[in-house]
Write a structure and sequence with these properties.
single chain; 135 residues; alpha+beta; Aminopeptidase; 5 helices; 35% strand
Length: 135
């Protein structure tokens, strides 16, 4: 896991292992490994917020392969997001305000980043990110 991902999950009170296992378990079978040239670049998934809301919480934990192969990571990210958008009316999550690389990536994918201070975890601001689905 990249250092910035480790920092973000630590801020939420988890070790990298705990964050990965918890995220996979909460995803109810909707998780995957993103392979780039045969190596794990990231592990991600989506958690449904509820049947009535038709909202999902996408998540991803990245490794150093995303740095080594940014074009492949971008292509796979867009493909994964396209699938999520066909199944959910709204995609939403939070991102550590210090994680500038992730914020840029989310914006480039089309997410709206709400930069306000109403969400703090351990005194650190987290930004809500949202993207409307295709439903």
């Amino acid at each position: 896991m990249r250092a910035a991902d480790k920092l973000e999950v630590a801020q939420m009170g988890f070790t990298p292992y705990e964050a990965l296992v918890r995220s996979i378990m909460l995803s109810g079978g909707e998780s995957w490994a993103m392979l780039v040239r045969g190596k794990v670049a990231a592990i991600g998934g989506i958690m449904a917020l509820g049947l009535l809301t038709r909202a999902g919480v996408p998540w991803i934990l990245t490794g150093n392969e995303v740095i080594r192969h940014p074009k492949e990571f971008w292509r796979l990210s867009k493909a994964s997001l396209a699938v999520f958008r066909t199944r959910y009316a709204l995609l939403t999550n939070v991102v550590d305000s210090r994680y500038e690389t992730s914020i840029r990536w989310l914006r480039r994918l089309g997410f709206k980043v709400e930069m306000n201070d109403d969400i703090t975890i351990g005194g650190v601001p987290f930004y809500r990110v949202t993207l409307r689905g295709a439903l």
